[in-house]
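Hey all, sorry for the wall of text incoming. These are the two entities for the joint prediction.
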Amino acid sequence: MARELIELLHRIGIDEVRERQRVSDREILTMGISFTVYSDGENIDRAWPFDIIPRLIDGNEWSLVERGLAQRLRALNHFIDDIYNDRRIIADGVFPADLLDGSANYRTECEGVHPKFGVWAHISGSDLVRAGDGQLYVLEDNLRVPSGVSYLLENRGVAKRTFPELFQHYRIRPVDAYTDELNRLLSSLAPDDRHEPRIVVLTPGIYNSAYFEHSFLAQRMGAELVEGQDLVVGDDDCVYMKTIQGLERVDVIYRRIDDLFLDPDVFLPDSTLGVAGLMRAWKAGNVAIANAPGAGVADDKVVYAWVPDMVRYYLGEDPLIPNVPTYRCMYDDEREYVLANLGELVLKPANESGGYGIVIGSRASADELEASAESIRADPRNWVAQPILDLSTAPTLVDEGIEPRHLDLRPFILTGEHSYVTAGGLTRVALIKGSLIVNSSQGGGSKDTWIVDNHHPSGHQLSQSPPSRSPPSQSPPSQSSLSQSQGGSD
Amino acid sequence: MALLSRVADRMYWAARYVERAEDSARVLRAYGDVLADLPTSSSRWSPLVSISGSDVRLPPVVGSDESQVAQFLIADREHPNSIVNTVEQCRENLRTCREVLPREAWQTVNDLSIYVRGAAVTSVDRRRRDRFLSRVIDESRRLDGVMISTMTRDEVFEMWRLGRYIERADMTTRVLGVRAASLLSLPPGEVDEFAEVQWMGVLRSLSALQMYQRATRGPIEGPSVVRFLLFDHRFPRSVAGCLAEMRTSILRLPEYSSVLGAVEAVDRQLRRSRPAADDGAVLDKAMDEVQNALAGLDNVMHEQYVVH
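and here's what came out:
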């Protein structure tokens, strides 16, 4: 499938490839596609790094991924709704009750709330990695305020102008419909009696690293981009925005700030980013909030391990896209396996984020491994372990020429009455040889991923059957010395 | 479409800042051109600093030296009204209202900002200056062109126009208050042999020379220049012309009566300055009064549409 791409790169030669890269860089600068990094006490607005060489995925494989992600998010939403209401999954012994006690993202304030369609995580981004066995795995689910979709859409715009000849040759699934689908989803969440609902995007403001995206999405949807100071909750428990003609009712809030900043009356009292009374208005059903407060309870490293069980429990289906096999140290047999194989595993504490506390067995000293073993024995519930994955690579333009670099992929999933999955996703690439650090704030780059359909005009069809999957208890997908953990999300 | 108060405020200020950058560029370009025609002894650059804002405290190093003044007006990061700062302020304001802006408009201001950041310091030099100033003026005009040709005539658009015309009216009174007033203030009996060249400079700094000549037959004469720039409402940079445009925009906004009242107050102040066209000392003071009335209009708008 990649043959035409490779042939084109050879035909035009490295100088022309570099020239196209320069044109693309210039375009990104002029269009003001930027991200904000915090450095030396200053917020710097930087041009978005984009590698022009696309990464290709076959449409047949992607169709399965789409179904798998939609299925996964349906199950996760059943779980969140269940946890804040009946807790059937606990009563039925499928999910251990005490896991909720340690969950940093469980919100007691959300108990008993019934959002429309039973959906809490309306907009989510799941990070996928392709391991050494060729299989795509879900590495983690981001159910709170996942970002990056604007760059996915902007990258495609630039890619079309960079390789117009390839867009003629390949049938590449378009990505542009996302904002329209998002608009449709958000409209559907409005309280039932509201016609032509008013949607706003709630941003923490211009100093947030994802401000570009907040602005982009508001623009594409024709929604208002508001800050907390623009909103007020009235005595009638409805939310209003301050306009030049006075107060106007708001029906749906696509919030891009964390739970704890949403409402100083309920969460952090010092927060100036949110709106006092917002939770009251939400609970009264006068405004929809996407994602719903409390949705983050299901994006936790330990809860993650139960997602395949959730799929089976709530949907009665087998998971179409696998988790990275995860050993839960709270169970004796899984813990014994972990302790016996420390050197070949990645050890992750449950309640840390941003990669903190993660131990990569193959790179740790004997002393470090012994210390980890102690921690696991002392507090087994707080640890999971995963095999060390070998992330796949794609050809990337670097100083040395075109070379393989590691990458990951974050498709975005919309869940409401129906589901929608982006064709491809935000594609981040490590620009340094051998590195797995794809974060743009740390020198990572981005690519465009093309989902290519119906590629063999000769009539040869790729297999329609899904690739084989292995259950978590089976052997790790690869023996490489590289870890997937650093490839995690921002 | 409802317009958020905060967004209204930022559109208005973005327009004021880019107009300020454009107007400074015009004034500076025309001034350099005039001074080239004058004997070196008459070359004084300090009036330009006064035009750029009486509220600005001058660093002592900025004297009447051309390169110091040009540096101060173009590239000085400490000077809030330098071109590099006003362009940056415009961009920062528009960056927080991209959701209501045509995409092309954002790209234009972003382009301008990238250019100015890169070229400001080297463009202080006389040989490069003109090209830089012309580019600033062109891009600012292009920005208006994009807005006019692609934006719905809604409240966002009217806020933009109001910012443009209030700032423009303000600049016209500044140029008249400083430059025209000093030209009219020559001691009785003394004739400045370069007066005509200097009046042409005043007109050029407001891009008004050609239109003035079409409107007025005969040689260029001080009081008639002043009257043209204040009262000829057909000319889009005259104060009366700006007021007419403001009224058009205000009538399209909600709850406009207090704002319209403030525009009429500016107009009354403007008409009171009519006898000042012949007398430099009176003109300077009259222009201050018009500027105060414009500041009053700005206040009323803020109260009506931003803070409530």
